[in-house]
Amino acid sequence: MNVLITGAGGFIGQALATVLVKEDRAASITLTDVVEPTAPESSRPTIRCVTADLTLQHVCDSLLTKELTHVFLLHGIMSGAAEADLELGIKVNIDATRLIFDTLRRVNPGVRVVFTSTTAVYGPPPSPGFPLTEANAPSPGSSYGAQKLISEILLNDYSRRGLLDGRIVRLPTVLVRPGKPTGAASSFASGIFREPLGGQKSVLPVSKDLSVWICSPRTVVKNLIHARDIPIEAYENRSRVVNLPGITVSVHEMLAALKAIGGQEALDLVEEEHDERTEKIVKSWPAKYDTTRAKQMGFADDGTLENTLNEYLEDYGRKKT
Q1: Residue 144 falls in the annotated catalytic set
Q2: How many Å apart are CA 8 and CA 53, to the nearest integer?
Q3: In the chain, where do the E strands start and end?
Q4: Edge-to-edge strand ranges of the sheet holding 211-215
Q5: What is the pTM of this model?
Q6: Model confidence over 173-183: pLDDT tens digits?
Q7: Which of 168, 52, 43 is nearest to 103 (CA)?
């Protein structure tokens, strides 16, 4: 098994690479991003870290070789940043992704590609609380959602034609993300835990009654690995798109969980500062899904919000005392 991960400098890419190393099934793993990713400690497999601009053909030619067996596409300009800079979002989320698809189908036809998409491909649900499935027509309420949907459609068609073996997984909002805030409109959802649990202030830009569809990092990585291993027959000649499992939580519930884990001291570090642009983007994402198809295909369900927070503290830090 020879694996390439794009966007590998992000925390999901790093967590995925660590799991792949522990599996000890890959002969080689290439990690690439716009800034050189960090390699997990390993004596085996061979790990190569590459700084790469995937919008350039010669860069894709050097990375996307016939020796690859599995490609995880995690790169992208996130929701808030893609809305703020349309041209950059198109360049990275559409143009670079198509360049990767077209290079792979030319040099390594049929290679397995796990593409991380987003539930932002949907617009607001038909009615509040309506559980969406893969059968519901996407109608993105953001440029990020539209750009991801375009790439989904292309990979789905290339898979139908046998040019690539695509596995398209729509990720919930991943919570809690370690490190610094990102350009995602949903970044606040991690920030209201990450910063207060580290003794720092955090801004809440949305209403407390807003709900979001979330999933823990551990479950997301587990499901990316599962997507890699699903036999083609499991798709039954249907769409390669799967909405990954998650849970629906309100901001009220998030703040209550923060208080339960970090106490009133942590809760007091969250400052309400409404941002209409952020709320508009996040409100356009449905907060409830029927993930029957994913579960039938063996994808893992997520745990409780409290469990997610405890996992974050175990993996990335511990509560201040």
Answers
A1: yes
A2: 13
A3: 2-6, 28-33, 46-51, 70-73, 112-118, 165-171, 173-174, 202-204, 211-215, 241-243, 247-250, 270-272
A4: 173-174, 211-215, 247-250
A5: 0.92
A6: 999 888 887 77
A7: 52
Q: Give me 100's structure tokens.
A: 């990767």
To the nearest whole number, what is the mean pLDDT of the chain?
Answer: 93
Question: Which candidate, 257, 183, 190, 258, places its Cα nearest to that of 220?
Answer: 190
Q: Where do we find the tokens 């849970």?
A: 247
Which tokens in the block code for residue 258? Answer: 């923060």
pLDDT at 316: 83
What is the spatial distance between Cα 139 and Cα 242, in angstroms, rounded to a whole number? 16
Q: Which of 144, 158, 289, 312 is catalytic?
A: 144
- Dist. CA 94–CA 251, nearest whole Å: 32
Alpha-carbon span 148 to 90, nearest angstrom: 10
pLDDT in tens, 254-298: 999 999 999 999 999 999 999 998 998 888 889 999 999 999 999
